[in-house]
Specification:
Largest sheet: 5 strands, mixed
Strand content: 25-35%
Helix content: 10-25%
Structural class: alpha+beta
Shape: elongated
Number of domains: 3
Length: 412
Amino acid sequence: MKTLFARLFLENWQRKLISLVLAILIWFMIEHSMTITKQIDSIPVRVTHLAQEKTIEGMQCNGILNKRISLTITGNKTAVEELTGKDLEVVIDATDKPDQWIAAICKKNLVSLKPEFDVSTMISKVHPFEMIIKQSKLVTEKIPITITHPIGKAPKGYQFLDIWPYQLSVTVNGPEEAIKRLKNRGPILTFNLSDISSAELDTLTSKKNSNAGDAISFYVPNSWKKINLPFLSDTPLEIDDPQAKNLRIDFSRQEFLPIEMPLPVTVFFPPKYSHAINPETCALASNDFIETRNGIELITIPLYAQGVSRLFLETVKDMIQIVIVAAPKQEREKLLWNVQFMYPNELEDRYVAKVLSESTEEISDVHPHLREDYLRNRFRSYMTRFRLYTTKQNKLLLNIELQGDSISVIPE
C-alpha cells in the first residue's frame, strides 16, 4: 500500500506539482475568458446634470426615472451569469441637451452597484439601445386634495358623524404637464375608521367638559397627513396646508335618546293622483297607534332618536313630523313615509348659534369664517343620520295601507 502511495504521490512529485499548477492556471484562464450574452431586465435609469429649471416626467428627486429598461449584455460568463437589474444602473448626462433627444445607451452609460463587479473589465459589449428623453419645465403648484368619506367601521359605541375640512392642498414640484393633469384630476385622501380604537375615543370623551360641544373630535395624527404621488415622489408627501392642523374626524356616541314629545303625522297628496285620492276623499284613520288631539294626528308611544346628539335633538324635537305619501292602491300596496324637519334652515341657525355661544372650545382653532360652515355641515349630517326607534333594538317600522277612504298606520 505504501509502495502504491509512494509511486502515486512521491515519485517525480516536482513534475506532478508543476502539472497541477499549470492545469489550474489553464482552467482559470479558460473559465475567465469565456463570454456569454444575457438580457438584464429592470435596470434603473438615472439622469444627471439637468438644468435647474427642468425636470423629466416620472423622475424622482434622486434623478431616477420611474421607467426601467432591459439591456442585452455580453461579458465574462461567471460574472454576467449572476447579474440582475439591481446590480447595474444606467446614467445619462443631460448637459447641453435639447428639450427632447434620443439617448443612445452603450457601455459607457453603465455603472455597477455591485462593488466586486467592474463594468470596464467584466462587460465587453452592450447591444445598442435607444430611449427618448423629454425634458419639461419644472413648476411648483398647490394641488387640491379631496378628503373622502372614510372607509371601515367606527369604534364600538360610536358612530361616524363627519370629517372636516373636506379639502386641503399640498405643494408639489414636478413637470408642468404632470402638474396640470394632477390639478385637473386632483388626488384623494381616504382614512380608515378601523384604525381608531374605542379606547382613544373614550379618552377624548372623558376629557370633554359640559361646554365642549356635542361631538367627539378625533384629530388626525400627522403621520396620516400624507399623500402618495408616486410619479412625483418615491416617498409620501406631507400635506403642508395650514388647515391640515384642524383635520378631524367627528364621532357621536351611539346613544338612544328619548324624544319625550308626540310626533305629528300628516299625509302628502301628490297632485297627479288628486282626481282619485285627496283630503276630501281620504283621511288618516285613528287607532291605538295614531291618536287625534285637537284635530292633530299624533304618534304618542315612546320613541327614541339614534344617530344624533342631545343638543341637536333639543333643538329640533318640537319641529319633527312624519309624512306619509298617499298613492292609489294600484300604484303602491304599501305607502311610503319619512321623517321631516320643519323649517330646517331656521333650526340650523338655532343650532349653530347655540354651539357658538356655549361651546367654543372645540372650534376655537378653526378660522372664524369657517366655523359656521363647519357647524352647519355637522347639523346637516345629524339630519341625514336621524333615525327613530321604538326600543334600543328596534327601528320604527310602519305598515301603511290605503283601506277604502282611509289610510291605516300600524307599527310592524
